[in-house]
Amino acid sequence: MAYLSDIEIAQKCDMKPISEIAEAAHIDEKYVEQYGKYKAKIDLSLIKETDRKNGKLILVTAITPTPAGEGKTTTTIGLADGLKRIGKSVTVALREPSLGPVFGVKGGAAGGGYAQVVPMEDINLHFTGDFHAIGAANNLLAAMLDNHIQQGNALRIDPRRITWKRCVDMNDRQLRFIVDGLGGKANGTPREDGFDITVASEIMAVLCLSDSITDLKDRLSRIIVGYDYDDNPVTCGQLKASGAMAALLKDALKPNLAQTLEGTPAFVHGGPFANIAHGCNSVTATKMALKMGDYTVTEAGFGADLGAEKFLDIKCRMAGLTPDAVVIVATVRALKMHGGMDKSELSNEDISALEKGVPNLLRHVSNIKNVYKLPCVVAVNRFPTDTDKEIDFIIGKCRELGVNTVLSTVWAEGGKGGEALAREVVRLCDEEKGDFTFSYSDEMPIKEKINAVVTKVYGGEGTVFTPEASKQIAKLESLGFGSAPVCIAKTQYSFSDDPKKLGAPEGFKVTVRNVKVSAGAGFIVVLTGDIMTMPGLPKSPAAERIDVDENGRISGLF
Q1: What is the distance between the alpha carbons of residues 58 and 490, in angstroms, rounded to a whole number?
Q2: C-beta contacts of 445-453 below 8 A and 24+ residues apart
Protein backbone atom coordinates (compact mmCIF):
# COMPACT_ATOMS: atom_id res chain seq x y z
CA MET A 1 0.00 0.00 0.00
CA ALA A 2 1.41 3.39 -1.02
CA TYR A 3 1.31 6.11 1.63
CA LEU A 4 1.45 9.85 1.01
CA SER A 5 4.42 11.62 2.59
CA ASP A 6 3.79 14.08 5.41
CA ILE A 7 4.40 17.05 3.15
CA GLU A 8 2.09 15.65 0.45
CA ILE A 9 -0.69 15.27 3.03
CA ALA A 10 -0.06 18.80 4.34
CA GLN A 11 -0.10 20.29 0.84
CA LYS A 12 -3.49 18.73 0.14
CA CYS A 13 -5.00 20.42 3.19
CA ASP A 14 -7.55 23.15 2.52
CA MET A 15 -6.35 25.57 5.20
CA LYS A 16 -8.69 28.07 6.79
CA PRO A 17 -7.73 31.78 6.90
CA ILE A 18 -5.92 32.47 10.15
CA SER A 19 -8.63 35.00 11.07
CA GLU A 20 -11.12 32.10 11.26
CA ILE A 21 -8.73 30.09 13.44
CA ALA A 22 -8.33 33.09 15.76
CA GLU A 23 -12.11 33.41 15.98
CA ALA A 24 -12.40 29.71 16.84
CA ALA A 25 -9.87 30.32 19.63
CA HIS A 26 -11.96 33.22 21.01
CA ILE A 27 -9.27 35.77 19.97
CA ASP A 28 -10.52 39.22 18.97
CA GLU A 29 -9.05 40.50 15.69
CA LYS A 30 -7.43 43.47 17.50
CA TYR A 31 -4.87 41.06 18.97
CA VAL A 32 -4.05 39.36 15.65
CA GLU A 33 -1.00 40.38 13.60
CA GLN A 34 -1.17 38.41 10.35
CA TYR A 35 1.89 36.96 8.62
CA GLY A 36 0.22 36.13 5.31
CA LYS A 37 -3.05 34.18 5.10
CA TYR A 38 -2.33 31.23 7.36
CA LYS A 39 -0.17 32.33 10.26
CA ALA A 40 -0.20 35.18 12.75
CA LYS A 41 1.34 36.55 15.91
CA ILE A 42 -0.93 37.26 18.87
CA ASP A 43 -0.33 40.30 21.06
CA LEU A 44 0.68 39.49 24.65
CA SER A 45 -1.92 41.87 26.06
CA LEU A 46 -4.56 39.22 25.29
CA ILE A 47 -3.48 37.18 28.33
CA LYS A 48 -4.11 40.08 30.71
CA GLU A 49 -7.21 41.49 29.04
CA THR A 50 -9.25 38.33 28.50
CA ASP A 51 -11.78 37.36 31.16
CA ARG A 52 -11.69 33.68 30.20
CA LYS A 53 -10.67 31.19 32.89
CA ASN A 54 -7.79 28.77 32.43
CA GLY A 55 -8.69 25.42 30.89
CA LYS A 56 -7.23 21.99 31.68
CA LEU A 57 -3.54 21.40 30.87
CA ILE A 58 -2.52 18.08 29.31
CA LEU A 59 1.18 17.25 28.89
CA VAL A 60 2.23 14.76 26.21
CA THR A 61 5.58 13.04 26.73
CA ALA A 62 7.09 9.73 25.64
CA ILE A 63 9.27 6.73 26.35
CA THR A 64 13.02 6.99 25.69
CA PRO A 65 13.29 7.79 21.97
CA THR A 66 14.87 5.53 19.37
CA PRO A 67 15.63 6.01 15.68
CA ALA A 68 12.38 4.10 15.08
CA GLY A 69 10.36 7.15 16.16
CA GLU A 70 7.63 7.62 18.77
CA GLY A 71 5.30 10.22 17.25
CA LYS A 72 4.96 12.45 20.29
CA THR A 73 4.10 15.63 18.37
CA THR A 74 1.84 13.59 16.07
CA THR A 75 0.00 12.24 19.13
CA THR A 76 -0.25 15.72 20.67
CA ILE A 77 -1.92 17.08 17.54
CA GLY A 78 -4.12 14.02 17.01
CA LEU A 79 -5.28 14.13 20.64
CA ALA A 80 -6.23 17.80 20.26
CA ASP A 81 -8.16 17.03 17.08
CA GLY A 82 -9.77 14.08 18.89
CA LEU A 83 -10.88 16.36 21.73
CA LYS A 84 -12.36 18.73 19.17
CA ARG A 85 -14.23 15.85 17.51
CA ILE A 86 -15.89 14.87 20.81
CA GLY A 87 -17.13 18.44 21.25
CA LYS A 88 -14.46 20.07 23.42
CA SER A 89 -13.02 23.58 23.04
CA VAL A 90 -9.33 22.83 22.59
CA THR A 91 -6.00 24.49 21.75
CA VAL A 92 -2.53 23.06 21.09
CA ALA A 93 0.76 24.54 22.37
CA LEU A 94 3.85 23.29 20.51
CA ARG A 95 7.48 24.20 19.94
CA GLU A 96 8.82 25.54 16.66
CA PRO A 97 11.17 23.16 14.81
CA SER A 98 14.88 23.93 14.55
CA LEU A 99 16.53 23.96 11.14
CA GLY A 100 19.23 21.67 12.56
CA PRO A 101 17.06 18.51 12.70
CA VAL A 102 15.02 19.60 9.66
CA PHE A 103 18.16 19.46 7.52
CA GLY A 104 19.86 16.78 9.63
CA VAL A 105 18.43 13.47 10.83
CA LYS A 106 14.79 13.91 11.77
CA GLY A 107 13.45 16.00 8.93
CA GLY A 108 10.29 18.05 9.58
CA ALA A 109 8.89 18.37 13.10
CA ALA A 110 5.29 19.52 12.71
CA GLY A 111 3.60 16.19 13.38
CA GLY A 112 3.04 13.46 10.83
CA GLY A 113 0.51 11.60 8.71
CA TYR A 114 -2.98 13.00 9.27
CA ALA A 115 -2.05 14.73 12.53
CA GLN A 116 0.00 17.78 11.57
CA VAL A 117 0.15 21.53 12.05
CA VAL A 118 0.10 23.64 8.90
CA PRO A 119 1.44 25.45 6.91
CA MET A 120 3.94 22.62 7.38
CA GLU A 121 6.69 24.02 5.14
CA ASP A 122 6.59 27.46 6.78
CA ILE A 123 6.64 26.05 10.31
CA ASN A 124 9.62 23.82 9.49
CA LEU A 125 11.61 26.56 7.76
CA HIS A 126 11.54 30.31 8.58
CA PHE A 127 7.97 30.52 10.00
CA THR A 128 7.67 34.06 11.47
CA GLY A 129 11.41 34.61 11.93
CA ASP A 130 11.59 33.97 15.70
CA PHE A 131 14.75 31.85 15.54
CA HIS A 132 16.50 34.39 13.34
CA ALA A 133 15.68 37.12 15.88
CA ILE A 134 17.02 34.95 18.71
CA GLY A 135 20.24 34.30 16.80
CA ALA A 136 20.63 38.00 16.01
CA ALA A 137 20.15 38.98 19.68
CA ASN A 138 22.59 36.28 20.83
CA ASN A 139 25.25 37.39 18.35
CA LEU A 140 24.72 41.10 19.06
CA LEU A 141 25.67 40.36 22.67
CA ALA A 142 28.74 38.43 21.47
CA ALA A 143 29.76 41.34 19.21
CA MET A 144 29.29 43.92 21.98
CA LEU A 145 31.29 41.76 24.38
CA ASP A 146 34.26 41.50 22.01
CA ASN A 147 33.96 45.16 21.07
CA HIS A 148 34.12 46.14 24.74
CA ILE A 149 37.43 44.31 25.05
CA GLN A 150 38.69 45.89 21.81
CA GLN A 151 37.76 49.40 22.96
CA GLY A 152 39.80 49.34 26.15
CA ASN A 153 38.10 46.70 28.33
CA ALA A 154 36.87 48.98 31.12
CA LEU A 155 35.19 45.99 32.82
CA ARG A 156 38.51 44.10 32.85
CA ILE A 157 36.96 41.03 31.20
CA ASP A 158 39.35 38.09 31.09
CA PRO A 159 39.29 36.81 27.45
CA ARG A 160 40.16 33.34 28.80
CA ARG A 161 37.04 33.30 31.00
CA ILE A 162 34.39 34.27 28.44
CA THR A 163 31.46 31.84 28.63
CA TRP A 164 29.16 33.43 26.04
CA LYS A 165 29.14 31.69 22.65
CA ARG A 166 27.84 32.72 19.28
CA CYS A 167 25.01 30.68 17.75
CA VAL A 168 23.50 29.56 14.46
CA ASP A 169 20.36 27.46 13.86
CA MET A 170 22.15 24.72 11.97
CA ASN A 171 23.96 21.48 12.79
CA ASP A 172 27.54 22.62 12.12
CA ARG A 173 30.19 20.66 14.02
CA GLN A 174 32.96 22.73 12.40
CA LEU A 175 31.93 25.66 14.61
CA ARG A 176 32.01 23.87 17.97
CA PHE A 177 35.52 25.07 18.77
CA ILE A 178 37.09 27.95 16.87
CA VAL A 179 39.74 30.64 17.27
CA ASP A 180 38.68 34.13 16.23
CA GLY A 181 39.93 37.71 16.38
CA LEU A 182 42.85 36.85 14.11
CA GLY A 183 44.45 39.23 11.62
CA GLY A 184 46.15 41.79 13.82
CA LYS A 185 45.21 44.40 16.43
CA ALA A 186 42.53 46.10 14.31
CA ASN A 187 40.57 42.85 13.95
CA GLY A 188 39.97 42.02 17.59
CA THR A 189 41.59 40.03 20.40
CA PRO A 190 42.51 36.47 19.40
CA ARG A 191 40.78 33.94 21.63
CA GLU A 192 39.16 30.52 21.72
CA ASP A 193 35.47 30.72 20.92
CA GLY A 194 32.65 28.49 19.72
CA PHE A 195 29.05 28.24 18.52
CA ASP A 196 25.95 26.65 20.03
CA ILE A 197 22.91 25.75 17.96
CA THR A 198 20.30 28.50 18.41
CA VAL A 199 17.89 26.20 20.28
CA ALA A 200 20.57 25.69 22.95
CA SER A 201 21.19 29.43 23.36
CA GLU A 202 20.25 31.00 26.68
CA ILE A 203 18.37 33.62 24.66
CA MET A 204 15.99 30.86 23.52
CA ALA A 205 15.39 29.87 27.14
CA VAL A 206 14.95 33.51 28.19
CA LEU A 207 12.40 34.12 25.43
CA CYS A 208 10.48 30.98 26.37
CA LEU A 209 10.37 31.83 30.08
CA SER A 210 9.67 35.59 29.86
CA ASP A 211 6.09 36.81 30.31
CA SER A 212 6.50 40.45 29.20
CA ILE A 213 8.93 42.89 27.59
CA THR A 214 9.92 44.11 31.06
CA ASP A 215 10.59 40.56 32.25
CA LEU A 216 12.50 39.89 29.02
CA LYS A 217 14.79 42.90 29.56
CA ASP A 218 15.36 41.98 33.20
CA ARG A 219 16.31 38.42 32.28
CA LEU A 220 18.58 39.56 29.44
CA SER A 221 20.41 41.98 31.74
CA ARG A 222 21.13 39.15 34.21
CA ILE A 223 22.89 36.94 31.64
CA ILE A 224 26.48 36.19 32.65
CA VAL A 225 28.86 36.42 29.68
CA GLY A 226 32.14 35.67 31.47
CA TYR A 227 34.35 36.69 34.38
CA ASP A 228 36.79 39.50 35.01
CA TYR A 229 40.40 39.23 36.17
CA ASP A 230 39.20 39.23 39.81
CA ASP A 231 36.87 36.27 39.12
CA ASN A 232 33.69 38.38 39.33
CA PRO A 233 30.86 37.65 36.87
CA VAL A 234 30.29 40.12 34.03
CA THR A 235 26.69 40.55 32.86
CA CYS A 236 24.83 41.63 29.74
CA GLY A 237 23.49 44.55 31.80
CA GLN A 238 27.03 45.80 32.44
CA LEU A 239 27.66 45.72 28.69
CA LYS A 240 24.46 47.79 28.18
CA ALA A 241 23.23 45.33 25.54
CA SER A 242 19.83 44.26 26.94
CA GLY A 243 17.78 47.13 25.48
CA ALA A 244 18.96 46.56 21.90
CA MET A 245 18.58 42.81 22.30
CA ALA A 246 15.01 43.24 23.55
CA ALA A 247 14.29 45.47 20.54
CA LEU A 248 15.33 42.60 18.29
CA LEU A 249 13.14 40.18 20.27
CA LYS A 250 9.98 42.25 20.82
CA ASP A 251 8.00 40.55 18.03
CA ALA A 252 9.56 37.14 18.60
CA LEU A 253 8.15 37.25 22.15
CA LYS A 254 4.59 37.16 20.78
CA PRO A 255 3.16 33.63 20.35
CA ASN A 256 2.48 32.36 16.82
CA LEU A 257 -0.94 31.03 15.82
CA ALA A 258 -1.31 28.28 13.21
CA GLN A 259 -3.75 25.38 12.75
CA THR A 260 -3.91 21.59 12.61
CA LEU A 261 -5.04 19.77 9.48
CA GLU A 262 -8.51 19.69 11.08
CA GLY A 263 -8.58 23.40 11.94
CA THR A 264 -7.76 23.22 15.66
CA PRO A 265 -5.99 26.40 16.86
CA ALA A 266 -2.29 25.74 17.46
CA PHE A 267 0.10 28.09 19.30
CA VAL A 268 3.58 27.24 17.96
CA HIS A 269 6.26 29.21 19.78
CA GLY A 270 9.83 28.78 20.97
CA GLY A 271 11.93 25.68 20.47
CA PRO A 272 14.61 24.70 23.01
CA PHE A 273 15.89 21.13 22.63
CA ALA A 274 15.18 18.87 25.60
CA ASN A 275 18.51 17.03 25.59
CA ILE A 276 20.67 20.20 25.74
CA ALA A 277 18.12 22.80 26.93
CA HIS A 278 14.76 22.86 28.76
CA GLY A 279 12.66 21.42 25.93
CA CYS A 280 9.35 23.28 26.25
CA ASN A 281 7.43 25.83 24.22
CA SER A 282 7.06 29.34 25.63
CA VAL A 283 5.30 30.22 28.86
CA THR A 284 3.37 32.95 27.01
CA ALA A 285 2.07 30.49 24.39
CA THR A 286 1.04 27.96 27.04
CA LYS A 287 -0.72 30.57 29.18
CA MET A 288 -2.45 32.03 26.11
CA ALA A 289 -3.58 28.58 24.97
CA LEU A 290 -4.93 27.84 28.47
CA LYS A 291 -7.07 30.98 28.36
CA MET A 292 -8.39 30.32 24.86
CA GLY A 293 -9.41 26.67 25.23
CA ASP A 294 -11.15 24.49 27.82
CA TYR A 295 -8.41 21.93 27.14
CA THR A 296 -4.82 22.70 26.15
CA VAL A 297 -2.58 19.93 24.86
CA THR A 298 1.16 20.59 24.96
CA GLU A 299 4.29 18.48 24.52
CA ALA A 300 7.80 18.42 25.91
CA GLY A 301 10.79 17.12 23.98
CA PHE A 302 12.23 13.60 23.90
CA GLY A 303 11.47 11.11 26.71
CA ALA A 304 9.81 11.88 30.02
CA ASP A 305 13.23 11.82 31.74
CA LEU A 306 14.19 14.90 29.70
CA GLY A 307 11.34 17.05 28.38
CA ALA A 308 8.73 16.14 30.97
CA GLU A 309 11.21 16.43 33.85
CA LYS A 310 12.16 19.93 32.71
CA PHE A 311 8.57 20.92 31.95
CA LEU A 312 7.58 19.89 35.48
CA ASP A 313 10.67 20.87 37.49
CA ILE A 314 11.57 24.07 35.62
CA LYS A 315 8.71 25.49 33.56
CA CYS A 316 5.86 24.63 35.96
CA ARG A 317 7.93 25.82 38.92
CA MET A 318 8.68 29.18 37.29
CA ALA A 319 5.30 29.78 35.64
CA GLY A 320 3.03 28.39 38.35
CA LEU A 321 1.52 25.74 36.07
CA THR A 322 0.04 22.39 37.14
CA PRO A 323 -0.81 19.72 34.56
CA ASP A 324 -4.16 17.99 34.97
CA ALA A 325 -3.12 14.83 33.09
CA VAL A 326 -0.09 13.35 31.32
CA VAL A 327 -0.01 11.20 28.17
CA ILE A 328 3.03 8.94 27.66
CA VAL A 329 3.50 7.93 24.03
CA ALA A 330 4.94 4.50 23.25
CA THR A 331 5.33 2.51 20.05
CA VAL A 332 5.74 -1.19 19.42
CA ARG A 333 8.74 -0.38 17.22
CA ALA A 334 10.60 1.62 19.86
CA LEU A 335 9.88 -0.93 22.60
CA LYS A 336 11.28 -3.69 20.37
CA MET A 337 14.48 -1.65 19.94
CA HIS A 338 14.71 -1.24 23.72
CA GLY A 339 14.33 -5.01 23.85
CA GLY A 340 17.46 -5.43 21.73
CA MET A 341 15.97 -5.68 18.23
CA ASP A 342 17.91 -4.16 15.34
CA LYS A 343 16.28 -1.27 13.48
CA SER A 344 16.40 -3.18 10.19
CA GLU A 345 14.29 -6.00 11.68
CA LEU A 346 11.52 -3.89 13.22
CA SER A 347 8.88 -4.79 10.63
CA ASN A 348 9.10 -8.42 11.82
CA GLU A 349 6.77 -9.53 14.61
CA ASP A 350 8.73 -10.23 17.82
CA ILE A 351 6.84 -10.55 21.09
CA SER A 352 10.00 -11.49 23.01
CA ALA A 353 11.79 -8.24 22.11
CA LEU A 354 8.63 -6.31 22.93
CA GLU A 355 8.43 -7.86 26.38
CA LYS A 356 12.10 -7.08 27.04
CA GLY A 357 11.53 -3.43 26.11
CA VAL A 358 8.49 -2.86 28.33
CA PRO A 359 10.54 -1.90 31.45
CA ASN A 360 11.52 1.35 29.72
CA LEU A 361 7.87 2.32 29.45
CA LEU A 362 7.13 1.24 33.01
CA ARG A 363 9.89 3.46 34.43
CA HIS A 364 8.49 6.51 32.64
CA VAL A 365 4.99 5.70 33.90
CA SER A 366 6.30 5.24 37.45
CA ASN A 367 8.05 8.61 37.31
CA ILE A 368 4.89 10.45 36.31
CA LYS A 369 2.68 8.62 38.83
CA ASN A 370 5.04 8.19 41.78
CA VAL A 371 7.62 10.99 41.52
CA TYR A 372 5.42 13.79 40.16
CA LYS A 373 2.12 12.29 41.41
CA LEU A 374 0.10 13.05 38.27
CA PRO A 375 -2.61 10.94 36.59
CA CYS A 376 -1.46 9.46 33.28
CA VAL A 377 -2.36 7.27 30.35
CA VAL A 378 -0.11 5.43 27.88
CA ALA A 379 -0.96 6.09 24.23
CA VAL A 380 0.24 3.21 22.05
CA ASN A 381 0.91 5.00 18.78
CA ARG A 382 0.22 2.47 16.04
CA PHE A 383 2.53 2.20 13.01
CA PRO A 384 1.47 0.42 9.78
CA THR A 385 3.98 -2.40 10.39
CA ASP A 386 2.62 -3.25 13.87
CA THR A 387 0.75 -6.54 14.00
CA ASP A 388 -2.51 -7.07 15.90
CA LYS A 389 -0.73 -9.64 18.07
CA GLU A 390 1.93 -7.09 19.08
CA ILE A 391 -0.65 -4.39 19.80
CA ASP A 392 -2.77 -6.79 21.86
CA PHE A 393 0.31 -7.96 23.76
CA ILE A 394 1.54 -4.51 24.75
CA ILE A 395 -1.93 -3.27 25.77
CA GLY A 396 -2.60 -6.50 27.69
CA LYS A 397 0.80 -6.39 29.38
CA CYS A 398 0.33 -2.78 30.46
CA ARG A 399 -3.14 -3.40 31.85
CA GLU A 400 -1.89 -6.52 33.65
CA LEU A 401 0.67 -4.26 35.36
CA GLY A 402 -1.95 -1.66 36.25
CA VAL A 403 -0.93 0.80 33.54
CA ASN A 404 -3.77 2.75 31.95
CA THR A 405 -3.41 2.23 28.16
CA VAL A 406 -5.26 3.38 25.00
CA LEU A 407 -4.54 2.64 21.33
CA SER A 408 -3.92 5.70 19.16
CA THR A 409 -4.20 5.67 15.37
CA VAL A 410 -3.85 9.40 14.76
CA TRP A 411 -1.07 9.05 12.17
CA ALA A 412 -3.42 7.16 9.85
CA GLU A 413 -6.77 8.61 10.90
CA GLY A 414 -6.13 12.05 12.38
CA GLY A 415 -8.57 13.19 15.06
CA LYS A 416 -10.83 10.17 14.55
CA GLY A 417 -7.92 7.96 15.65
CA GLY A 418 -7.50 10.06 18.80
CA GLU A 419 -11.09 9.99 20.05
CA ALA A 420 -10.57 7.09 22.48
CA LEU A 421 -7.48 8.81 23.90
CA ALA A 422 -9.40 12.09 24.12
CA ARG A 423 -12.20 10.48 26.15
CA GLU A 424 -9.69 8.93 28.54
CA VAL A 425 -7.89 12.27 28.98
CA VAL A 426 -11.21 13.98 29.78
CA ARG A 427 -11.94 11.25 32.33
CA LEU A 428 -8.51 11.70 33.95
CA CYS A 429 -9.05 15.46 34.20
CA ASP A 430 -12.51 15.02 35.71
CA GLU A 431 -12.05 12.01 37.98
CA GLU A 432 -8.40 11.56 38.96
CA LYS A 433 -6.99 14.59 40.73
CA GLY A 434 -3.22 14.59 41.03
CA ASP A 435 -1.06 15.81 43.89
CA PHE A 436 1.62 17.50 41.81
CA THR A 437 5.07 17.40 43.42
CA PHE A 438 8.50 18.45 42.11
CA SER A 439 11.35 15.93 42.14
CA TYR A 440 13.45 18.28 44.31
CA SER A 441 12.95 21.40 46.41
CA ASP A 442 14.39 24.88 45.82
CA GLU A 443 16.31 24.72 49.10
CA MET A 444 18.38 21.64 48.22
CA PRO A 445 22.04 22.27 47.30
CA ILE A 446 22.88 22.00 43.59
CA LYS A 447 24.56 18.60 43.90
CA GLU A 448 21.56 17.19 45.78
CA LYS A 449 19.16 18.46 43.12
CA ILE A 450 21.18 16.80 40.37
CA ASN A 451 21.40 13.59 42.39
CA ALA A 452 17.64 13.64 43.02
CA VAL A 453 16.95 13.68 39.27
CA VAL A 454 19.55 10.95 38.62
CA THR A 455 18.24 8.60 41.31
CA LYS A 456 14.50 9.36 41.32
CA VAL A 457 13.88 10.01 37.60
CA TYR A 458 16.69 8.25 35.71
CA GLY A 459 16.83 5.27 38.09
CA GLY A 460 20.59 5.58 38.59
CA GLU A 461 22.69 4.76 41.63
CA GLY A 462 24.13 8.23 42.00
CA THR A 463 26.22 10.99 40.46
CA VAL A 464 29.94 11.42 39.88
CA PHE A 465 31.21 15.01 39.75
CA THR A 466 34.51 15.81 38.06
CA PRO A 467 36.81 18.11 40.08
CA GLU A 468 36.07 20.91 37.61
CA ALA A 469 32.30 20.44 37.99
CA SER A 470 32.57 20.48 41.79
CA LYS A 471 34.61 23.69 41.60
CA GLN A 472 32.01 25.28 39.29
CA ILE A 473 29.15 24.30 41.61
CA ALA A 474 30.90 25.77 44.64
CA LYS A 475 31.46 29.00 42.70
CA LEU A 476 27.80 29.23 41.61
CA GLU A 477 26.55 28.62 45.14
CA SER A 478 28.90 31.34 46.44
CA LEU A 479 27.40 33.72 43.86
CA GLY A 480 23.86 33.03 45.20
CA PHE A 481 22.56 30.65 42.52
CA GLY A 482 22.09 27.67 44.84
CA SER A 483 18.28 27.90 44.85
CA ALA A 484 17.95 27.70 41.05
CA PRO A 485 16.49 24.59 39.38
CA VAL A 486 18.82 22.36 37.35
CA CYS A 487 18.62 21.78 33.60
CA ILE A 488 20.50 18.56 32.88
CA ALA A 489 21.95 18.09 29.39
CA LYS A 490 21.99 14.34 28.73
CA THR A 491 21.71 11.92 25.84
CA GLN A 492 18.09 11.39 24.81
CA TYR A 493 18.68 7.72 23.94
CA SER A 494 19.05 6.33 27.46
CA PHE A 495 18.00 6.92 31.04
CA SER A 496 21.75 6.96 31.72
CA ASP A 497 24.44 9.21 30.22
CA ASP A 498 25.49 6.36 27.89
CA PRO A 499 23.35 6.23 24.71
CA LYS A 500 24.06 2.50 24.33
CA LYS A 501 22.29 1.56 27.57
CA LEU A 502 18.78 0.96 26.28
CA GLY A 503 15.69 -0.26 28.10
CA ALA A 504 15.64 0.47 31.84
CA PRO A 505 19.32 0.20 32.91
CA GLU A 506 20.22 -0.16 36.57
CA GLY A 507 23.34 0.26 38.69
CA PHE A 508 24.73 3.13 36.63
CA LYS A 509 26.12 6.47 37.73
CA VAL A 510 25.89 9.73 35.78
CA THR A 511 29.08 11.75 35.35
CA VAL A 512 28.73 15.55 35.55
CA ARG A 513 31.65 17.15 33.72
CA ASN A 514 30.62 20.80 33.45
CA VAL A 515 28.20 23.13 35.24
CA LYS A 516 27.30 26.70 34.30
CA VAL A 517 24.59 29.18 35.16
CA SER A 518 21.99 30.55 32.77
CA ALA A 519 21.27 33.50 35.05
CA GLY A 520 18.78 35.09 32.65
CA ALA A 521 16.82 31.89 32.21
CA GLY A 522 17.09 31.28 35.94
CA PHE A 523 18.49 27.74 35.96
CA ILE A 524 21.76 25.83 36.29
CA VAL A 525 22.91 23.96 33.16
CA VAL A 526 24.49 20.59 33.93
CA LEU A 527 26.46 18.85 31.16
CA THR A 528 26.77 15.06 31.42
CA GLY A 529 28.43 12.37 29.33
CA ASP A 530 29.43 13.36 25.80
CA ILE A 531 26.47 15.69 25.18
CA MET A 532 27.26 18.67 22.94
CA THR A 533 25.42 21.95 22.47
CA MET A 534 26.21 22.01 18.75
CA PRO A 535 25.10 18.86 16.90
CA GLY A 536 26.59 17.73 13.59
CA LEU A 537 25.00 16.58 10.35
CA PRO A 538 24.77 12.81 9.63
CA LYS A 539 26.45 11.02 6.73
CA SER A 540 23.32 11.45 4.62
CA PRO A 541 21.57 14.63 5.85
CA ALA A 542 17.88 15.18 5.16
CA ALA A 543 18.91 18.37 3.32
CA GLU A 544 20.11 16.23 0.39
CA ARG A 545 16.50 15.23 -0.30
CA ILE A 546 14.83 18.66 0.08
CA ASP A 547 14.04 20.64 -3.06
CA VAL A 548 11.72 23.31 -4.47
CA ASP A 549 10.21 23.45 -7.98
CA GLU A 550 9.59 26.37 -10.36
CA ASN A 551 6.23 27.08 -8.67
CA GLY A 552 7.76 27.30 -5.21
CA ARG A 553 6.39 23.90 -4.13
CA ILE A 554 8.76 22.29 -1.61
CA SER A 555 9.41 18.55 -1.48
CA GLY A 556 11.42 16.28 0.80
CA LEU A 557 10.43 17.76 4.18
CA PHE A 558 9.35 14.19 5.10
Answers
A1: 25
A2: 445/477, 445/482, 446/473, 446/476, 446/477, 446/481, 446/482, 446/484, 446/486, 446/515, 446/524, 447/473, 449/485, 449/486, 449/524, 450/486, 450/488, 450/512, 450/526, 453/309, 453/313, 453/486, 453/488
Q: Which of 39, 41, 56, 72 is catalytic?
A: 72
Active site annotation includes 74: yes
127 belongs to the catalytic site: no
Q: pLDDT tens across 454-499, in order?
A: 999 999 999 999 999 999 999 999 999 999 999 999 999 999 999 9
Q: Is 432 helix (H, G, I), strand (E, B) or coil?
A: coil
Name the residue among 483, 501, 477, 480 with its Cα closest to residue 491.
501
Alpha-carbon distance of 11 to 120, in angstroms, equals 8
Say how many CA atoms lie within 13 Å of 84 toward its Cβ: 26
C-alpha atoms less than 13 angstroms from C-alpha of 509 in its C-beta half-sphere? 8
The single residue of 142, 274, 452, 489 carrying the catalytic annotation is 274
H-only helix segments in 201-241: 202-209, 213-222
Q: What is the pTM of this model?
A: 0.95
Gap between the Cα atoms of 516 and 531, Å rounded: 14
**Per-residue model confidence (pLDDT) at position 351:** 92
Contact call for residues 130 and 165 (beta carbons, < 8 A): no
Average pLDDT of the chain is 94
The active-site residue, picked from 267, 311, 383, 523, is: 383
Residue 106's pLDDT is what? Answer: 61
H helices present in 86-167, as ranges: 99-103, 120-124, 130-150
